[in-house]
Amino acid sequence: MEFWISDKHIRKLCGQAAYKKGQAFQMAGKVNITEANDQSITAIVEGRSSFYVELTRSQAGTIHAECSCPPVGFIHTYCHHIAAVMIAAEELGQRERPLAEQMFGLFEEDDKPSARLHRFDRRVPYHVEAAIRSGGKEQLVLTFRSGTAILKNVRDPLRFVSALSNGQYEETAAIPYDPSRHALEQPVLELLQVLDKSNPQPDENGKLLVSASDWERLLPLLREITHAKFENPLGEVLPFHVTDTLPVSFRLDHGTSGYRLIVRGLERFQIFPKYGVALTEESIVQPASADMKRLSGLQELMQGAGEELAVEESQVAHMMKVVLPGLEKLGPVIVTEKAIEKIGETPLRAKLYLDRVRSRLLAGLEFHYGQLIINPCEEPDGTYRQYPGVFRQLEKERAIMDLMASGRLTKTDGGFYLQDEEAEYDFLYDTVPLLEEWLEVYATTSVKMRIQKTLPGPKIRVNLPKDRTDWLEFRFDLGGIPEEELRGIIRAIREKKRYFRIPNGTLMSLETPGMAAFEEYLAVMNIDEDNFERVQRIPLLEGMRLAGSLEQHELSETGTEFARLLKELHHPWTQSQQLPAHFEGILRDYQKRGFSWFRLLAKYGFGGILADEMGLGKTVQSIAFVQSVLEDIRKSDEPALIVAPSSLMYNWQAEFERFAPEIQTVIVDGPKAKRTQALKEPGDVYITSYPALRMDRGAYKDWTFHTIFFDEAQAFKNPATQTAKAVKELNARHRFALTGTPIENSLDELWSIFHVVFPALLPDRSQFAELRNADIAKRVRPFLLRRTKAEVLGEVPQKIERIEHSELHEEQKKLYTAYLAELRHEALKHLRDNSMRKNRIRILAGLTRLRQLCCHPSLFVEDYSGGSAKFEQLLEILEEARLTGRRVLVFSQFTGMLNIIGQSLLRSGRSYFYLDGSTPPKERVELCDRFNEGEEDLFLISLKAGGTGLNLTGADTVILYDLWWNPAVEQQAADRAHRMGQKREVQVLRLVAKGTIEEKMYDLQLRKQDLVDEMIQSGSEAVQSMSEEDIREILMI
Question: What pLDDT sits at residue 774?
């Protein structure tokens, strides 16, 4: 039958999804071809019902198909029933075609087509899957599957290899191979030819045995074959993948029975020593030959020992020196803390000594392990000597040596040296700071003075000129530095050099932030090495940015007038402004500060955004400002303009009539004729709407206003709108925006508002998008004033307390029940024989153990691998807090618990602050200040160390992870956040494990506020006067 369709063509006609479904139908035997010839095929496909499919081929070779299933209107490819019949037809054609062509082969020329698939080949790709498997007796065998679309097992692999490698017809394969119709990929052909020449033998199951010599030639070819596979020890057939990493690990531990070497992973792979490989559950591993021999011997050695090998104490030193370095080549080696502690290892303390002698930089490196000092330069590269009783921290040593190598130093047996000036600068400026994170640096004075990071001598004096308050004056003072030397510095900056060599030999860095600020100053002022104008003037706002950069790096001195300006900008209300007399009794204090802020910005020609929360009187503050400049408005014949939403125009007019009735207002609203007439009327203040302004853009072209207030300025938050373009075209001396929401969705909205009221403040949109949020905030802070109701009306924030319960995990519950039973038994015995007082400490210790089990059993249960319900609950709460923007304090009595929490947070990529009893007092204050200033949103704190004396009003959530006997201690912890200065509602969450001692503790807290006096002293001291009833209730006995 000539009616066959290639696999690729079927996918194109039917689509990938239909092809996969059709393939499943065909493999399940649901396709029955009732009639087939060269021009058409008729078939029945059994699904939920019988579907009739007909395929026809036109004389031009186009395939047309029809199916009785309901059509889907939006799908233009054939259905999966048609795909199933096409796949069946393709296989039928492959089985029948070779038989028909055998007769023709008798009369054709003997020329055979190349088996290899080339780029102009129109033959069908014939896929061969070669799978490596274990044949037993440490031998590898090879099996094959072949076909075009569906691969099936090859029954006679020897004959299959011979036929395909010689380009011969092979009919015994499930899908016969015909070299005239089928093509092989090149790596498959080469693999088959290698096998054919080596004359492999089948094993008793018919699989081809692979010899060790053939394996070396087959391995690179198997890597290239598309359908290469291997069978892992679990019997799973996986894609062929070769690696040199073994799934084996080693652990040297010390326990009650002494030292033991724990070997894990040996049972997860099969070793084939003759081939130099091992089959693992994930891949084929090909280690170095020496490592393969060790691995084989180790597996044989450990067969009877399980996973553990006992090590005598007298053998440990030899193991550390010889065995462990060898094991590291096979897999990761861990020496547990207990083993290290027993061995007596001291932490690594690395030291770097730097000196300069005869224009050379000399460096000496030492690794200190207790009294042992190692000079790494004396050891051959790549080798590390092991010393008895010392476990070297090789990872840290390698990191240090890699950094030294990156510094381009020349290594000798005694140390390192550098003679190149540029390399010396790179090492001292770039590499040494990195090394300081790993080691201690001891440098002589000559080395310390070699790099200079500040500009010597010259200062730039910044001040407001007396004749103009809208410009800033910069006066360049050489400060005693030779002019020629300064010229050299400026020339080096202009030429983008990394440093400048001062005549005394010092290398002055030109890469510091201070130098960047100086470079910006030179560029703005157009100063080069031939031009030293002593006095320069630039517009005030541009000058303020430049002055701020210079001042930050101590390159400038601030004049008296400029200092006054800066003080006024940051605290405008400290300067008394001319508040109109009748507003004294109207404005609140914060509104007076808003008025002063308006006046200050207007004084220097700045614009701004008053962003007070709704209801705080932005309107009356604006009217007070207009009243204060009314005389100037009338004298200059430049009125004020209010642009507001249509709904607020008349509200503005009413507020003017209420607070400043002498100000004449004109509403510009209504039809065009009425608006035109309104603009002709005399007035001090014109009030219009954004829609009216858009329609009257041309009418305002010749107007110059004294002041414009844009109410609800978010109306032009999109700079591309007609509203934004209309307000931008207005001319005015002073512009102010009023809005409670200057940012609703993105910072672009803030840019759009400032682009109208103060365009000089921010760069264009593309440059603005590249600014960091912190830089934007710093730049706009003096020109954006926002107050909330809570801030100015003195609302007292609430404190909400609640309990969060959790249910112990099963494994956790088993441990808790066992410890509880033991403690109950012991407590009952002491209560009976009146020995309670003598055993207070033991009772307290037992209660503490129960509380630790509620927190996390791994606090004291060795090798505990289960979970903790409360711990998981905490992580969920912390994630919810992060997503909702809450700032959290987590208190726990147990520093070990804080460490568990911290490690989990670090693994998830979340940072935090940490404080316990070991934190120095000065550092505690610094951490609290940083947290309150907004750095980090999570603080882990030891209950006893951080429960008192700290101000953490930057937090709004307090989590008490474990309860304390005395509720006052918990209250003090909660009060770290809920105290004077707190502006937000504070939530206090107590985490309690249900059905445990923690519930009983909380009940006692509620019933006995003086529990600390009756039962336990503060801190970790012993039980004082615990009653029998208390003991019975807590332990439920």
Answer: 80
Domain boundary among 208, 240, 272: 240
The reply to whether 1008 falls in a domain is: yes
End-to-end alpha-carbon separation of the chain, Å?
89
Answer whether residue 816 is part of any domain. no
Lowest mean pLDDT among 183-197, 370-384, 436-450: 370-384
- Pairing type for strands 507-509 and 451-452 reads parallel
User: What's the CA gap between 362 and 587, in Å, rounded?
Assistant: 71
Q: Is residue 170 within 8 Å of 176, Cβ to Cβ?
A: yes
Domains: count for the chain: 7
Can you give the pLDDT at residue 1017? 28
The per-residue b/e assignment along 912-925, b for 16 or more CB within 10 angstroms, e otherwise, is: bbbbbeebeeeebe
Same domain for 336 and 407, yes or no, is no
pLDDT of residue 130: 93
CA 408 – CA 402 distance, rounded (Å): 10
Closest Cα to residue 878, out of 906, 850, 854? 906
Say which amino acid occupies 226. T
Q: Which of 203, 222, 240 is the last residue of a domain?
A: 240
Residue 742: the pLDDT is: 83
pLDDT of 186 strictly over 70: yes
Quote the CA–CA distance of 697 and 343 in Å, as a whole number: 86
Q: Are residues 296 and 409 in the same domain?
A: no
pLDDT (average), residues 874-894 = 91
Do residues 85 and 154 share a domain? no
Token pair listed for 321: 């020196």
Domain interval for residue 561: 459-569
Return the sign of the alpha-carbon dihedral for residues 493, 495, 497, 499.
negative
Looking up tokens 């084939």 gives 272
Q: How far is CA 824 from CA 821, 834, 1028, in A?
A: 5, 15, 12
Same domain, 150 and 223: yes
Q: What is the band of 980 on the pLDDT scale with cuts at 50, 70, 90? A: very low
Looking at the predicted structure, is the pLDDT value of residue 844 above 90?
no
- Condensed to tens digits (0 to 9), the pLDDT of residues 996-1015 reads 988 888 877 676 544 323 32
Take residue 381 and report the two structure tokens written for it: 């590269």
pLDDT at 606 over 90: no
Tokens of 890: 């987590």
Residue from 34, 207, 216, 58 nearest 133 by CA: 207
The answer to whether the beta carbons of residues 83 and 18 sit under 8 Å apart is yes
The Cα-based distances of 879 to 471, 900, 956, 976 in angstroms read 50, 16, 15, 22
Per-residue confidence band for 855, with pLDDT thresholds at 50, 70 and 90:
very high
Q: CATH number of the domain at 721, please.
A: 3.40.50.10810
Burial of 378 (0-12, 13-18, 19+ CB in 10 A): exposed
Note the pLDDT tens digit of each residue in 19-75.
Answer: 888 888 887 788 998 988 878 899 999 877 888 999 988 776 778 899 988 776 556
Do residue 374 and residue 429 come from a single domain?
Answer: yes
Which whole-number Å values give the CA distances from 1029 to 828, 832, 1032, 1037, in the listed order?
12, 13, 5, 9
Mean pLDDT score, 879-900: 91
Whole-number pLDDT of residue 110:
42
C-alpha dihedral (28, 31, 32, 38), degrees to nearest 10:
-130
Whether residue 60 contacts residue 115, with contact meaning beta carbons closer than 8 Å, is answered with no
**Same domain (yes/no): 1007, 937:** yes
Q: Say if residue 371 is in the same domain as residue 290.
A: no
Q: What whole-number distance in Å separates Cα of residue 1003 and Cα of residue 1025?
A: 18
Residue 634 maps to a domain: yes
639 and 702 share a domain? yes
Task: Note the pLDDT of residue 1010.
Answer: 43
The CATH number given to whatever domain includes residue 1015 is 3.40.50.300
Answer yes or no: is 830 within a domain.
no
Amino acid at 402: D
Backbone angles phi, psi at 343, to 5 degrees: -70, -30
pLDDT in tens, 541-563: 666 666 665 666 566 666 666 66
